[in-house]
């Protein structure tokens, strides 16, 4: 690997690992446990993504690619590390129901806001909402999930009230950790795609950032960015839902794609690095 690229890659990986290691340490995951996860992923990715076309991947080739010895590769290929495939899927279905409730006028009241819905009914009901926006998920399962994350309230008169405009778990660490795996993986996969073959059309990857914002402006900027981002996501949700076979079973076409757009907000105290200080000192001279 070219030295300059390796230096940049090392620096980028260290930056990527810092917030991840904070999370791991917070939940009592040791370096040994993390190292075993990393070994397993190295073997799994080498096995599935770096084979030679038309040839079965071998333990010897995986060993050469990863730098792990053959004994470790053989051992790791037999281990089944749990992959939480159901987490992101459940999140997606529940999120669809919330988005549908927020944007679909069929489920709005006279003032154009999400209506309090009767639990059952053919048309303007929670059952109709779930059937339209969650695919084949049982109504009871979706209701239980939305109650669990405090996104809705079930009233004494057998109606349901929406309490939030987005799927945001409240004080449920396991659910938030599932979102960590799903969302961070999507972002890194986008970067991986954009670092790949230049012939491929790059995926959209942008951010806006300033590093000299006064603390007094933070509240306004945070509220504005949240409101504008929510509006954009609701608009995109309408477009995506219009082409999704789960929401529209009559949609025709070949293949099956998973696609979307993610928006995130970040904020931290600015700490100027020694490297940047040195550059500024050098420029002054």
Q: How would you describe this protein?
A:
54% of the residues lie in helices and 3% in strands. Among the domains are: 1-81; 86-162, Arc Repressor Mutant, subunit A (Orthogonal Bundle). The radius of gyration is 24 Å and the shape is globular. Helix 2 (31-49) packs across helix 3, helix 5 crosses helix 6 (126-133) and helix 5 (86-103) packs across helix 9. It is mainly α. Mean pLDDT is 85; it is low at 277-285. It has 10 helices and 3 strands; from the N terminus they run αααααβααββααα. Strand 2 (152-154) and strand 3 form a beta hairpin. It has a 3-stranded antiparallel β-sheet with strand order 1-3-2, with helices on one face.
Topology:
Elements: H1 3-26, H2 31-49, H3 59-66, H4 70-77, H5 86-103, E1 117-118, H6 126-133, H7 139-148, E2 152-154, E3 159-162, H8 173-195, H9 218-242, H10 274-284
Antiparallel strand pairs: 1-3, 2-3
Mean pLDDT over the full residue set: 85
Tell me the overall shape: globular
The biggest sheet, with number of strands, parallel, antiparallel or mixed sense and barrel status, is:
3 strands, antiparallel
Through-space gap between termini: 36 Å
Q: How many β-strand stretches?
A: 3
Helical content band: 40-55%
- The neighbouring-strand order within the major sheet is 1-3-2
Radius of gyration: 24 Å
Run of helices and strands: HHHHHEHHEEHHH
Which class best fits the helix and strand makeup?
A: mainly alpha
Amount of beta strand:
under 5%
Oligomer: single chain
- How many DSSP helices? 10
- The low-confidence parts are 277-285
């Amino acid at each position: 690997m070219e030295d300059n690229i390796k230096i940049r890659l090392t620096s980028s990986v260290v930056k990527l690992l810092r917030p991840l290691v904070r999370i791991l340490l917070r939940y009592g995951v040791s370096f040994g446990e993390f190292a075993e996860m990393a070994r397993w992923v190295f073997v799994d990715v080498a096995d599935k993504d770096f084979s030679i076309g038309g040839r079965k991947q071998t333990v010897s080739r995986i060993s050469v690619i990863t730098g792990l010895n053959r004994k470790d590769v053989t051992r790791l290929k037999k281990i089944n590390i749990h992959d939480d495939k159901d987490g992101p899927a459940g999140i997606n279905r529940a999120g669809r129901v919330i988005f549908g409730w927020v944007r679909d006028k069929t489920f709005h009241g006279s003032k154009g806001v999400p209506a309090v819905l009767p639990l059952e009914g053919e048309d303007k009901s929670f059952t109709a909402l779930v059937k339209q926006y969650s695919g084949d998920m049982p109504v009871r399962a979706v209701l239980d999930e939305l109650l669990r994350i405090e996104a809705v309230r079930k009233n004494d008169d057998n109606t349901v009230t929406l309490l939030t405009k987005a799927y945001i778990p409240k004080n449920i660490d396991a659910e938030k950790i599932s979102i960590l795996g799903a969302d961070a993986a999507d972002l890194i996969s986008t970067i991986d795609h954009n670092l790949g073959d230049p012939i491929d059309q790059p995926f959209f990857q942008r951010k806006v950032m300033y590093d000299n914002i006064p603390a007094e402006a933070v509240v306004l900027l945070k509220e504005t960015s949240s409101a504008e981002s929510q509006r954009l996501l609701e608009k995109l949700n309408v477009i995506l839902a219009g082409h999704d076979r789960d929401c529209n079973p009559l949609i025709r076409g070949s293949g099956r794609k998973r696609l979307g757009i993610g928006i995130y907000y970040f904020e931290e105290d600015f700490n100027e690095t020694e490297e940047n200080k040195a550059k500024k000192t050098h420029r002054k001279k």
